């Protein structure tokens, strides 16, 4: 039986039992399995892995593990001085698809201007397919979903608090400088466009017609937006997330 040693760093330990945290682990195997499969046999989803170093050399997911290998597995939060680096995947665009557990997070991401797909009835197969075919980052609370082979970009959201979840995702994908608030429809994810008040006058309530002049309309669902009574509160919310907290 062949043996290799593995060490998982930083937040990758979240997927390991407590007794295995920050420890050197021995993996027994036959033949030369792809290191991607070996990593997931420990419970770590491959989209969470950013860098694989075997015997001091950067390798990709297809590397065949050999007897006696030393495998160091890093998340994106860890900076490692090694060259050359073999990239595991192309850099993703900040476009998302979210599972059923993350509805509030979907609304927050849309409020900040990020292209975010969400339905409360997405089956796992469709979530994985949309993530793969549309090159979207899959955000989920389901670790097993991240292990599906077709998923390239994904992240297991750790926090249970909706506001903390948002900051967690912004920090993980370095999105603070990409915030473009109130540019997307919170309800359907469509883009918002300026619309003349006169063109929608027949759709407005009397007090809205009297007190407001600036309007946006969703190009997808036709919903109308204006700077109503909740706008200042929403602005305060957005400003809170423009800069990462310490």
What's the quick description here?
The chain has about 250 residues and is of the alpha/beta class.
Describe this structure in words.
By secondary structure, the chain is an alpha/beta fold. Among the domains are: 2-74, Beta-grasp domain (Ubiquitin-like (UB roll)); 95-178. It is 25% helix and 21% strand. The chain has eight helices and twelve strands. It has helices at residues 35-41, 103-111, 124-133, 143-146, 162-172, 197-200, 206-211, 231-240, and strands at residues 2-8, 24-29, 51-54, 57-59, 70-74, 95-98, 115-118, 137-140, 154-156, 192-195, 215-218, 224-226. Strands 2-1-5-3-4 form a five-stranded mixed beta sheet, with no helix packed on it. Strand 11 (215-218) and strand 12 (224-226) form a beta hairpin. Helix 2 crosses helix 5. The N and C termini lie far apart (48 Å). The model has no long low-confidence stretch (mean pLDDT 95).
Q: What labels describe this entry?
A:
246 residues; alpha/beta; Ubiquitin-like (UB roll); five-stranded mixed β-sheet; four-stranded parallel β-sheet; 8 helices; 12 strands; 25% helix; elongated
The N- to C-terminal Cα distance equals 48 Å
Number of helices: 8
Number of strands: 12
Cα radius of gyration in angstroms: 22 Å
Physical arrangement of strands within the biggest beta sheet: 2-1-5-3-4
Topology (elements, then pairings):
Blueprint lengths: L1 E7 L15 E6 L5 H7 L9 E4 L2 E3 L10 E5 L20 E4 L4 H9 L3 E4 L5 H10 L3 E4 L2 H4 L7 E3 L5 H11 L19 E4 L1 H4 L5 H6 L3 E4 L5 E3 L4 H10 L6
Parallel strand pairs: 1-5, 6-7, 6-8, 8-9
Antiparallel strand pairs: 1-2, 3-4, 3-5, 10-11, 11-12
